[in-house]
Amino acid sequence: MNAQNHSVAGRRLPRLDGVGKVTGKHVYAADFKLPGMLYGKVLRSPRAHALIKKIDTSRAASIHGVRGIITSADIPAIRYGTAVRDTTVFAVDRVLFVGHAIAAVAATSLEIAERALEAIEVEYENLPTLFDPEEALNSNIRIHPNWETYKALPIIARSGNIAGQARIRVGDVEAAFAKSYKVYEHRFTTALQHPGYTEPRVATADWDANGNVTVWCNTQLPFDTQNTLAEILDLPSARVRVTVPGIGGGFGGKLRIGVEHFAALLARKTARPIKVMSTSEEELTAALPRQASVVLVKTGVDKDGHLLARSGKIIVDCGAYAGSGPGTAAISLQVMAGPYKTGALELEGIAVYTNKVHSGSFRAPAGPMANFAMECQMDMIAKDLGLDPLEIRLRNVVKEGDPGPSGEIHKSVSIEECLRKAANAIGWHDRKPEPGRGKGIACSWWMTTGGSSGVYVKINPDGTATLVSGAVEIGTGAITGAAQILAEELSLDLTDVNATGVDTQAAPFDYGAQGSRTAFSVGNACLAAAAELRRQMFELAAKQLDAPIEGMSLQDKHVIAGNKSISIAELARISRLAGGGLIAHGTAISPAPPYDPTRVQNHPLPVWNTPSYHAHAVDLSVDQATGKVTINRYVVAQDVGYAINPTYIEGQIEGGVAQGIGQALSEEIVYQDGRVMNANLTDYKMPTAMDVPEIESIIVECRSAAGPYGAKGVGEPPCIEPPAAIGNAIAAATGCWPNSLPMTAEKIAAALRVQQS
Amino acid sequence: MNRKILNIVVNGESHQVLIEPHWTLLQVLRNEIGMMGTKENCLEAECGVCTVLLDGKAVNSCILLAGQVEGCSITTIEGIGDPEHLHPLQQTFIECGAVQCGYCIPGMILTAKSFLDENPGSRPSRDEIREAIAGTLCRCTGYSKIIDAVATAAERMAISGGSQ
């Protein structure tokens, strides 16, 4: 079908769940309750690294209204985790960070549960601590003394405090440095950032008479949560049902199990339904934030600014457990290579344990960290060589058919178009030297995560369609986008599609709402389901109309055969009586493109599926006295392949940039001696409506081969470039190059004072 | 626990609720009256998702003790419109693409309503709207489309003659 002729897909239609959300009728996991429900609370460690000498719960258990208490002694001794199986539900024998779960209490009210926590007596014996990731690399202190006994994915390379180590090598990097006209070497640091979803992690669990458990929660990955719960509970996964009534944001912070296991275990212990919800303090001390990192980049160029060699090393501080640290360290290598041709590469990503909060996969994990380092250095090189920052990028960007870092072939490449459009929109060529004001530019590329999706689509007797997917609508509008594709293919209106909530017991498998893949992959599954439904409807219509299938088409909710027609609704009614109804199972999988495995070592995501390209440009002012940054204009040019719904694509761009501005300028979970100093939403500074400028989106459509109607992943990229683009603009405005996130007014003012003296 | 009777009017209906002295208005609305459109998050008046109207003014229900609102009239998101009769703000939030995950939206809409009702018939600037909604955190949208929605609703309400 020609995308230009679409009547539903590609249009700015309102989302399917909009009315429920503006009227307060949309049910979120936090709103879910059951009769007789208990409340659960988790006791968390006040020590960063200590042996647990004794836990005495007897005084807490005797409090009126306390129904059950569990510690590691009460549950199966199981370690779980995605890359490395190093994680336990509760601290076992030792606590590894401030905030580490030690025990959980079930009580008839939250207040009683909180009182019970205070009555649990724990004796500790302090152990030496490790807070600095670089120090942890070479320290004799072990966060996990038995790390060798843990199971891990075979691809993950571990050693001591190193939870994962990946490499990409292309060509002879030393020879290329030797040939370089100039070599630049810089060090950057980035900070721990909370995903900042407004609905805390929450779960309600209940066991039935047959020993099956149902968990109502706000996970982004219901099937992953189902499997992890099954392991923790030592049950077959079919006996664990995970359902997501609604979810108040995720941004990657709700990929892995959060509080679901506490709820399920306490419900089993007490034989009562129970609800567990994180507090803001728990969110900021014991959730799954974006890792802090140290990035070292060394780049060799020729006289004209062509990249000849790059070596890079990122040290990802994954905290007390590996979490997604090994994957993040590995993905950062593709980000460090960038959408550039570089003669030779030697990139290394290391995930290292420290006595801090375990970390997760916040939107474009590794993206903004590695891009900040790589793209700020690009401007430093341009300045030193007397080149325009746009020009040095244009000289190096990949073109159609160029090899990527893993030896894959770049296809439907739009990076030059994105750079030129963003630059033109910000008035790049009209830059005038103005004290305290500057423009910055940065670009990147990013994958569309693969994984399989299945949908069931049923045609109802009124001619509407029900879409059952295992993918959670986390707010992006991805399910509305998939429904637009389904409606387009079936000649329905978008409002004819009813998308159900997610229930692992009823829905087909989906790899989950992650990695910019939901609209892409569920959309492809909808295409497949629609094709099967057309087949079923044409077959039935052939009998009803006594007409050949060849030449049949779907138009305006009718099957048309020559001058005869029959409505979809009528076919659905006939099929109900004669054939069990019109229903299809559509599936989709995007195989990884071919690549050169000799270039990539110990990398769980060795090659990127259907990459997108994008460029950001910013115009900002810096107060010369205080260092305060005011963003005057912000422009994004992003290649989305095909814009399924431009309104919600703009929404992804605007929201992603706002998060990126937070990471660039203000957000940091601040640790001092192993303790979080700002575990509340006043001191953890997320951007408010006063802090985010108008963001101008330029949607570029360079069709992909794999996505529905040529779409590419959209959700993650917008948060990648803001730290680099803003850092480069700050440098243009002040002459001072920030090398540490967040670039707070305090840091900028200090740099300005050094410059003035 | 010393329970006492609280008399409040919620969305025009009078309620008598047996409350404990430490309960907040948020707890009463969600746990006792079942107005689940009022959301909970930080419980420290920092995020704004729990915003309701107390005698027409936006307040954070998470830090208001229920005992303080004896005899008061409360409006929650359920009280300003329903799917068949959306308030202009509810309508424009949908039209302008201002809703993503939606968890902050009830608080955001009520904050905006309180602001527009203070200046009936006005057409506030985008900067004035930014300032008015700055107390409610939204992590999804970057705020632009929320500002579009409030500005569009203000325009429509001004044309149709003031507060709704």
Automatic annotation (TrEMBL), chain A:
InterPro entries reported for this sequence? Ald_Oxase/Xan_DH_a/b (IPR000674), Ald_Oxase/Xan_DH_a/b_sf (IPR036856), Ald_Oxase/xanthine_DH-like (IPR016208), AldOxase/xan_DH_MoCoBD1 (IPR008274), AldOxase/xan_DH_MoCoBD2 (IPR046867), AldOxase/xan_DH_Mopterin-bd_sf (IPR037165)
SUPFAM superfamilies, alphabetized: CO dehydrogenase molybdoprotein N-domain-like (SSF54665), Molybdenum cofactor-binding domain (SSF56003)
Query: Per the database record, which ranges form the Aldehyde oxidase/xanthine dehydrogenase a/b hammerhead domain?
Result: 23-128
Q: Which domain of life is it from?
A: Bacteria
Recall the GO molecular function terms of this protein's record.
Answer: iron ion binding; oxidoreductase activity
One Pfam family linked to the record: Ald_Xan_dh_C
Q: Which PANTHER family does the record associate with it?
A: XANTHINE DEHYDROGENASE (PTHR11908), XANTHINE DEHYDROGENASE SUBUNIT D-RELATED (PTHR11908:SF157)
- Name of protein: Aldehyde oxidase/xanthine dehydrogenase a/b hammerhead domain-containing protein
From TrEMBL, chain B:
PROSITE patterns in alphabetical order: 2FE2S_FER_1, 2FE2S_FER_2
Q: Which UniProt keywords are given for this protein, alphabetically ordered?
A: 2Fe-2S, Iron, Iron-sulfur, Metal-binding, Oxidoreductase
* Protein transport found in the keyword field: no
Is Metal-binding among this UniProt entry's keywords? yes
Q: Which Pfam families match?
A: Fer2, Fer2_2
Residue span, 2Fe-2S ferredoxin-type domain: 4-80
Give the Gene Ontology MF terms in alphabetical order: 2 iron, 2 sulfur cluster binding; metal ion binding; oxidoreductase activity
Identification of the protein by name: 2Fe-2S ferredoxin-type domain-containing protein
> Can you name the source organism?
Bradyrhizobium jicamae
Source lineage: Bacteria, Pseudomonadati, Pseudomonadota, Alphaproteobacteria, Hyphomicrobiales
